[in-house]
Amino acid sequence: MEVRSIWTSTDLCGYLDFPYAAQVFTIRREVTQMVSQKSRSETVQGLSSLPAARATPAGLLELSRGHWTIENRLHWVRDVTFDEDRSRVRTGAGAQVMASLRNLAISLLRLAGARYIAPALRRCARSDPQTLRLIGLRL
Length: 139
Fold this sequence. Notes:
The chain is α+β, with helices and mostly antiparallel strands.
């Protein structure tokens, strides 16, 4: 279980050496493991270029929580499922092309409704006729 608290302020922005800083915030996270009942707390500070009128405290909490969505839904899948870090393709545009192909595969599977990429890839590897439908081919 996780409880998050946030404090925001615009008072410090004139003192910061960050261009476009519109507000600062502190987020405190208190996490309790349900099984072991162990708890931990974490406090982080941040700043935003969004003014308080456009980014309320609740909005900043949502942005903070959603920040890891790309890491969890794309980069982690590329790192773990595709084992991208051990790729031997490093010369020319090869690495960028392979990353684009991996992103394309992930996007096609997500658009097709796959929640978990690894099992979806295994299904495609079995020459399932549905695999060709992902790219618009019908048998």
